[in-house]
Write a structure and sequence with these properties.
five-stranded mixed beta sheet; single chain; RNA-binding; six-stranded mixed beta sheet; alpha/beta
Amino acid sequence: MGRPIQFIIATMQLQNLVQRFTSDIVGEEQFEKMLVKSSADNKPLRVKFGIDPTFTDVHLGHSVPIRLLRAFQDHGHLPVLIIGDGTARLGDPTGRNEQRPALTAEDVARNSATYLDQIGTILDLDPAKCEVRHNSEWFGGMNFFDALKLASQSTAARLLERDDFKKRMQQNQAVHLHEMMYPLMQGYDSVMVESDVELGGNDQLFNLHMGRRMQERAGQRPQICMTTPLLLGTDGRKMSKTYGNHVGLNAGSNDMYGKIMSLSDDGMPLWFQLATTMRDDEISQCLAGHPRQAKDALARNITSQIHGDDAANAAAEAFVQQFVKNKIPDEINECIVGESAMKLASLLKEAGLVASTSEARRLLKDGAVKVDSESQSDPNWLVELSATDAVLLQIGKRRMINVRCASS
RNA sequence: GGGGAGAUACCGAAGUGGCCAAACGGGGCGGAUUGUAAAUCCGCUGGCUCUGCCUACAGAGGUUCAAGUCCUCUUCUCCCCA
């Protein structure tokens, strides 16, 4: 029985995308066979991706595997999205030199709620097209003996091979026993959802392997592991909220465009490859031109994926006004304070532009502060406020706000 | 269980009785420059009612005119031996 031509084309498309978005594939030989069988049996592949609700923002770095997941979805396969509300309780040590604090059940619940919204900007979460699971479903009911059984699935030596653990051991840093359970938990997720393929960032390779091994032990067909390259942050380091170099999927269009524009030139090729919808030839063309133009195209493409073309164009325009022409943006947040006159240093704090009056004083001394576009340096200057005409406070190019006082 | 080392600001790391709100590096934030950047140069980087005062060097006590620095206990981490 011959394969329909559509299937061959679709498979090639999918494989091209897989190519573009992956750095490592474990079990690549079996992947094509799996695709063929899936088509023959009319049974979509179960493609797993897990994310722990350990923080509130999902960023573009996380979006790379999600985009690949979307590609699978578009080709008729079934994303199995695991919200790691069980694993998050443990604190994922991945890529860190110190363990993440274990979160409380409330933290996790709150974060989980915002996750699906953000992921939904990329993935189609229609229950008919996507399976969403929370791993507390199986970890929540485990008792200590179940956990021991889980622990017996691997060995200390094997777990210590993990790069992150190895490094910390070498640096005489603590590796706690419960952290070593993490790969086992992630692997067990694969067993529970019977995944055919698992996606993850390339720092996840160890954990993905664990899923394969555990599935084999459980008598299942071992999953294909695909890792995506890590999208670097705007400063060239690993994208991470703690570095402040991330672009959140829930960022507003202006913010998103602006942050991407602050990416260093060197970072562009990787971003084009992993975060845009552009074809390879379009990308090459962009990169051959002026870096400013290329970055604009990059930022527009990504921003419009999330916010739409109009918002992206508006963001680009606003950016030029604010940062290239140094103009004050059209829309500025406004705040209202209780008093009709305040010392400048206190006012800056009251308006939320700085964390403390000490910081305000320093910035004033540095000449960073403008009031109604005039540089000011005296922290004790008494600023008169009115209820109708706002006073514009500015610190640098980015921090600005209009202030009025409450009408009495 | 025994022995040893250690815990300093956002991070790394100096400091072993006064000159310590704490060197130095990174990060961050401002300023100059620019193509939005990057690089470079300069400045800042605990708080306040700010030429002074208050709170800080794991935690709690103590010695001293004076403690990040000395003593005691507690907590946590690492290493070696069992």
